[in-house]
């Protein structure tokens, strides 16, 4: 994910934004990496130096964050940039007298794994991106603080409410490990297909609602020297947006739960899984992929899409921010729910939606009172609005963005898609619960897209990953209800 600039694009009226924000607040989302384990010491308790970081608690400062102390903040500098965090830190310093050491980086594992190993992690971390340290790995090593104290604290905006009661329903789910919230997925995210409104208008294409119509556009694009579907080949997480979404919409929420709950027929024996992977493979077999996309990074593939070299690309809603510098001013970026196979149990409007971008507080953070208060303020309308202004995106706080904030076209289209979806949203939890299984499924998809394996073998490998995970006794503590 790339850098963020000041936002632009066309605005929406105050009334429209209020309506859309309200719609998002009503969305009930049932629930959403690649590196080695982080070998860290146990913990879970308060290991901060109380003498230096613990101040006097008060109604406005429930954790006793101490003026004059310092906070070590590390932020993944991807699609949302890190200007929002700098704005937060400046406000934190102004109001509480707590200064911050700020690090914005994409090298999360490279920079932080040695610090976790040595027992001196940062205080607040946005643990995201391709080099994320996996949440389940950190949790198993006792490296994460249980965030219940933050979530049960009084809301900054309405002290009569707990912080957790001000959030969009379901958005805490991806951060749960064995019943504990250990990561705060902060950004309200949708996943699906993206296209250029300008290109579609020029070609006379109508955004497809069915898989047949999707294939027809891809075929027409190919005839005109344009790729049909682009994907970020070096990171098969992205093509799994398409594969897994088609499976979910074909088989309904039961197909999602079967995978999350490690069902012995999650893949092999699942008609939805077979139909979904065969549909995606048809794109490969018919030569409808953007040429070269299998060998490209996320930004390389997305930039070629911005150059009108493909009709569609798969991604989450950080795409617009990530591609600001590469997107032509008249590109008119648009979001599209995954088109339907015939006989799908979910409607076209259904989308994968929920929370992304996990923030964590390490159990051995040096300034735990400051870190807890920082996270509490992240879930205030003031800081949520600061985020929206700098990062052009919505947070998990209900009605958390001031109506004066103008969103760019692509982000506006995700707001409209979320409103249209209503309660027809879904979210896989296995990537957050079982990173090893997730990686195995991604690897299988990489082989599939390169035509090195067929759909039948993909199903077999994915089921093997499920069956292996099911043998872990700890997996019985997670359940997608």
Characterise the protein shown here:
By secondary structure, the chain is of the alpha/beta class. It is built from 19 helices and 11 strands. The strands form 2 sheets. Strands 1, 2, 3, 6, 7, 8, 9, 10 and 11 form a 9-stranded mixed β-sheet that branches. A two-stranded antiparallel ribbon has the order 4-5. It is globular and about 70 Å long. The protein starts with 13 loop residues before the first helix and ends in an 11-residue tail after the last helix.
Which characteristics define this entry?
481 residues, alpha/beta, 9-stranded mixed β-sheet, two-stranded antiparallel sheet, 11 strands
Secondary-structure blueprint of this entry?
Layout: H1 14-26, H2 50-53, E1 70-76, H3 83-96, E2 99-105, H4 108-118, E3 124-126, H5 135-140, H6 148-151, E4 176-177, E5 180-181, E6 184-196, H7 197-203, H8 211-223, E7 227-230, H9 237-251, H10 253-260, H11 271-285, H12 298-306, E8 310-316, H13 319-322, E9 333-336, E10 351-360, H14 368-378, H15 381-391, H16 409-421, E11 425-426, H17 430-433, H18 435-449, H19 455-470
Parallel strand pairs: 1-2, 1-3, 7-8, 10-11
Antiparallel strand pairs: 3-10, 4-5, 6-8, 6-9, 6-10
Helix pairs in contact: 1-16, 3-15, 9-10, 9-11, 11-19, 18-19
Oligomer: single chain
Distance between the termini: 32 Å
Order of helices and strands: HHEHEHEHHEEEHHEHHHHEHEEHHHEHHH
Q: Helical proportion?
A: 40-55%
- DSSP strand tally: 11
Largest sheet: 9 strands, mixed
Note the beta-strand portion. Answer: 5-15%
- Which stretches of 5+ consecutive residues score pLDDT under 50? 1-49
Using only C-alpha atoms, the radius of gyration works out to 22 Å
Work out the helix count: 19
